[in-house]
Specification:
mainly alpha; elongated
Length: 103
């Protein structure tokens, strides 16, 4: 299970304006899928009823089922989408105090 600072690093890797090396995309995607699972588990454990948390957790669950596209450009776009959802979910969980602020 990845720590919150590691999740932040994964999000940073996905959202960095400089795309990751082609060989790293799959690894980062795998980490982000694990991160989304962890964040969703936090939302469930906190019994969150926040509409935005629930929407983002649903979006996260869907994105975990989507395979990485074939072409590098599409892979990077998908990676950034997953990273953005993970970032938004982390921020919302922090805002609703389901988790402590992560620096």
């Amino acid at each position: 299970m990845r720590t919150l600072p590691e999740i932040l690093d994964d999000i940073g890797d996905a959202l960095d304006p400089q795309p990751p090396e082609e060989g790293k995309v799959e690894e980062i995607h795998g980490h982000l899928c694990d991160d989304l699972e962890r964040l969703a588990a936090i939302a469930i454990a906190a019994e969150s009823t926040d509409v935005e948390v629930l929407r983002l957790a649903e979006r996260a669950a869907y994105l975990q089922t989507v395979d990485l596209p074939e072409h590098f450009r599409d892979r990077v776009l998908h990676l950034r989408l997953v990273g953005a959802v993970a970032n938004d979910l982390l921020e919302r969980l922090t805002a609703t105090r389901a988790i402590k602020q992560v620096a």
